[in-house]
Amino acid sequence: MYNELPAKEQQQVENALLHDAELAASCADLLLAQRALNGLSRTPSQRTTDALLQYSRTFLRKE
Question: Which domain of life is it from (predicted)?
Answer without folding.
Answer: Bacteria
